[in-house]
Design goal:
Elements: E1 2-4, E2 10-14, E3 17-20, E4 32-39, H1 46-49, E5 61-74, E6 79-83, E7 86-90, E8 94-109, H2 110-126
Antiparallel strand pairs: 1-7, 2-3, 4-8, 5-6, 5-7, 5-8
C-alpha cells in the first residue's frame, strides 16, 4: 500500500501549516528501527531473500520514498511501484527491485528486520 502526499487527506490547512492524516496505515507492535536506504538502479533483493520464509522479507515497513523508483513484489503475486514523494506500507512477504536510483526512509519492526538484514549480509558474504 502506498500513497502520494497529495492523496493523503488534509486535516488542517492554515497559513504556514498543512497537516495531512491517513488513519489505519498498517499496524505496529514492539520496537521499531529507523532506516535510511540508498539503492542503485538494477538492484534486486529477490536472490538475497532466498532461504527466508516464502523467499521474501517477512518484516513490515512503513516509509517515505525520497527519490527514485522501486517495484515491490509480494508473495501473493501482486506488485506495486513506489516513486519519490510516496508514503508507503509494505506488508510482510515482499521483495524489492530498484528501477531508478532510490533514496528511502523505512521504519521497521526491529527484531524481524534485523533477522532479514543478517540473512542478506550472510548471502552477500558467501558470494
Amino acid at each position: 500500500m502506498h500513497i502520494t502526499k497529495n492523496d493523503i487527506p488534509v486535516k488542517i490547512n492554515a497559513p504556514g501549516a498543512v497537516a495531512r492524516h491517513l488513519p489505519d496505515f498498517g499496524v505496529a507492535a514492539g520496537s521499531l528501527a529507523a532506516e535510511y536506504f540508498s539503492l542503485g538502479a538494477g538492484a534486486d533483493l529477490a536472490p538475497l531473500l532466498q532461504g527466508l520464509t516464502g523467499d521474501a522479507c517477512q518484516a513490515a515497513h512503513w516509509g517515505y520514498m525520497i527519490s527514485g523508483e522501486v517495484v515491490v513484489t509480494y508473495t501473493d503475486g501482486s506488485n506495486e511501484t513506489c516513486t519519490g514523494g510516496d508514503v508507503f506500507y509494505w506488508h510482510p512477504g515482499h521483495s524489492v527491485r530498484v528501477s531508478t536510483d532510490a533514496e528511502l526512509i523505512l521504519f521497521s519492526p526491529q527484531e524481524e528486520h534485523a533477522h532479514v538484514l543478517e540473512h542478506i549480509a550472510a548471502k552477500m558474504a558467501a558470494v
